[in-house]
Amino acid sequence: MKQLYLCGAISNNPNYKQDFEAAREKLIKAGYSVVSPVIFCNEKWSWAKCVRKGLEVMARNKNLSIALIESEYESKGRDLELQIAEALGLEIKTVDEWVEEV
Fold first, then answer.
1. Residue 51, number of CB atoms within 10 A of its CB
2. How far apart are CA 20 and CA 5, in angstroms?
3. CATH label, 3-101, candidates 1.20.1300.10, 3.20.20.80, 3.40.50.800, 3.40.50.10400
4. How far is 100 from 30, CA to CA, in rounded Å?
5. CA nearest neighbour of 1 among 59, 93, 63
6. What is the pTM of this model?
7. CA 11/CA 64 separation, integer angstroms
8. In which residue ranges of the chain is pLDDT below 50?
9. Angle in degrees, CA 82, 66, 89, rounded to 5
């Protein structure tokens, strides 16, 4: 089972919880294992601590691929995660592209 890390706008997105949960459910229904920063990050953590935790998860898991939640919201954290994922050679597709693949 392919494991996907959800990457999307959180800080500037007032609907991030709904967006991440909808994406997570869609991917699980398609048969993927999903890692979501909305689940593993504590809301009381600083932005920097949560981003560091996400990057740690991405860097430690060699079999992880990225599922991008498309959004019109700007996000430094999302952009940083995507840059690191590209540098690590992780496969990156949108949520819909992953779902269509099955």
1. 21
2. 11
3. 3.40.50.10400
4. 9
5. 63
6. 0.95
7. 23
8. none
9. 65
